[in-house]
Amino acid sequence: MPRSAYSYLKDPSVIPVELAPDVDGPLDCRLELPENMEARAVKLHHESVVFDLHNHVHRLADNMLRDFETYARSGRIAMGYDGIAKSGMTACFNGYGGSAGRRSSPQAWQFEDIVWDLGIRQADIAHHQDVTILGTCVNDVDKAKATGCCAVFANVENAGIIGNEIDRLDVLYGLGVRCMGLSYNQRNTIADGSNETQDGGLSRFGEKVVVRMNRLGMLMDFAHSSDRAILDTLEISDAPCCISHSVPKALNTHPKAKSDDILRAISDAGWVFAVQSVPNVTSSKKEQSIFDVADQIDHCVEVMGIDHVAIGTDSMFGDHLGLHKCISKMMGHPAKPFVGEYVKYLENPGEMPNLTRVLVSRGYSDDDIRKLIGINVVKLLEKTIG
Length: 386
What we know:
This protein has about 375 residues and is of the alpha/beta class. It has one domain (about 5-155, about 240-380): Metal-dependent hydrolases (TIM Barrel, Alpha-Beta Barrel), CATH 3.20.20. It has helices spanning about 35-45, 65-70, 80-85, 110-125, 140-145, 170-175, 205-215, 225-235, 260-270, 290-305, 320-330, 355-360, 365-380, and strands at about 50-55, 90-95, 130-135, 150-155, 175-180, 220, 240-245, 270-275, 290, 310, 345. The strands form three sheets. Strands 1, 2, 3, 4, 5 and 6 form a six-stranded parallel beta sheet that branches. A three-stranded parallel beta sheet has the order 7-8-10. The longest helix is centred in the C-terminal third of the chain and has 17 residues, at about 365-380. The chain starts with about 35 loop residues before the first helix and ends with a helix. It comes from Dethiosulfovibrio marinus. This is Dipeptidase.
């Protein structure tokens, strides 16, 4: 029987829209390898710690253009438990709130909505312990591996939700949040975002936020933040940080992309950079695939060294491009064409075994593959959240 979100309530009406499938979806496909490579990849994926540093393991509405607003405002975003089981992931950082969790307001990133989304979804996770456990410390990764479950760690992509109340960081930590982005594309009270035309880096308040997050043991993420914010944080943070889902600018000049100079600076400081898999961020080509992701991993390994590179797919179950179209409309962005429709072989979290397959096909050693698909993130967490 399929595993359903909020099934403990025994009331199918709690999710008001038809959901996209989390297994056997229209874009699901397996990367084919020669028999000897396939056997090696399957064994490696099964035996290794597989850790996605940033994703969204929920199901989107099946008809995004019609049902996105109803779903986002419903207060019950549905996790894709069968897809999580299929993925073979040991752990992931799941993003909460944002455009998908807007129960109290049509505007994203309200503190009240983050608290609701954390609470309601983590209650559901706790009722699916055959697949998931709540992750709050490194030991939970070991527990998940031993039990065959996936440890779901909480990530919030925009610390701007705290406004000017720094103690809200402690509240979020108490609710299980272990990773947070300092800004999300635009400027907030803490730091500039990657889409700003002027880059002021960290604010004075942002410097206090960095110190508090260090003391709490909360991993800082700069996937949507500006270069200056990264460089400012390098000067004052007592712990390594991460860029949980991005791409190297040398291969795609997206606003989120990071230059080789930034990649070298963060690797020198012991940070981790995770390559993402998102249509029209991963590539600007019409046909986008896991091979573009692999090219970016290759480049980052060359620039940063094998110990500082990971995967942060930023994937979800359903029409990712449809989500981007809905968000653009919601935010009043000018209509623009989207070149690619999906990232073949790594469009959703259930396709994570294809990542191991493509790294095998690229000739990486078993030890290096283990680092790229999980161990580098675990070592980062040992130095941050503990």
